[in-house]
Amino acid sequence: MRVIDWTMWQFGPVSTMMLADLGADVIKVESLDGDHGRQFATVAGVANALESSSAYFESLNRNKQGIALDLKHPQGLEVMLKLVKKSDIFVENFRQGVAERLGLGYEDLTQLNPSLIYASATGYGPKGDDSGKPAFALTGEARAGSLWWAGPDDGIPYNINGMADQIAGIMLSYGVLGAVVARERFGVSQRVDVSHLGSLMWLGGMRDGIALLSGKEFERQPRTRAGNVLWNCYRCKDDKWIAFSMSQGDRYWPTFCKALAREDLATNERFARMAARNEHREELIAILDDIFIKYTRAEWEERLDAAGDLIWERVQSIMDLPEDPQVTQNDYLIDFEHAHWDPPSGTRRRLHSVRRRCQRKGLRPHTANILNLC
What we know:
The longest helix is centred in the middle third of the chain and has 24 residues, at 163-186. The chain has helices spanning 11-21, 55-58, 74-85, 98-101, 106-112, 137-143, 163-186, 196-203, 205-214, 249-259, 263-267, 274-279, 281-292, 297-307, 325-329, 345-360, and strands at residues 2-6, 25-30, 42-43, 46-47, 64-68, 89-92, 117-122, 191-195, 231-235, 241-245, 312-314. A 6-stranded parallel beta sheet has the order 5-2-1-6-7-8, sandwiched between helices. Strands 9-10-11 form a 3-stranded antiparallel beta sheet, with helices on one face. Strands 3-4 form a two-stranded antiparallel ribbon. The model is unreliable at 364-374 (pLDDT under 50). The chain is of the alpha/beta class. Belongs to the CoA-transferase III family.
């Protein structure tokens, strides 16, 4: 299937990148000065490592072909319309009215290609007084109530770093695939509209559902007041962290206490049952903090493994992922060839290691498949 990708920044490009990953022939159409994402020199304080391009742009636009058109020029618009006539899907993420002014709205393009699936990435949805407001990830997250998800209970909204663009991109590609199935089954073309606002509300469905059904705001839970001490993170002697994820607290509590060599905590009536641990959680978490800080994470991992049935994991950073056997053995990060990027020596060694694994499996790293810059 051919996809015309008339999008920029992150929301739209994520959705079309996912379609490209599934094998679609995606043609990214940019203005003559390019997708504005190409111009990002730094993102979240991280300097761009690519002199001739942008890591931000490249991490969102793999597996695509590209063309630059001046859509205000008759010949540029003519090229776009010829592409649309031969395509299956058209994706855009411009403010309401921009596509229509250029003759690229849903009605315009479906007259030209009646089987076309037309997908729009918007901030607040196609209806309502605010449907035409400009939006980016942070404004969508703010409107959807998402900035109260994370951080300490200090009354300050916390940035969740572009999550709106990622989940909205996933939702848009999901909607497009639903429209593809409908077209194949019933012969109908559809317009798909996905917004930051709607996508973030869906992402927070569990939290929102509890809050709206109970009539109470979902509370933040700083780690020092976690409602379940076995659904929490603890710092080790070497300043590394371990996360525990055991919602069935009473089932795992005795084994957990055994791993800590503190069986007395399992029989202490203040901590023996879930309700009691919740009531005395700040006191108990302080006790657990004092215990975990005595040993390194590697020492704790050995003790936790030996204890038996516990659900825990090390808290990793992004830079830990290329060294993680689960990541590499499942090909969650793969090798790629780049025309301009010269990776740091440590990363170069990892890339060579991946290349050797591919060769042993009889696989050839594909130059276009740059899954997750690493």
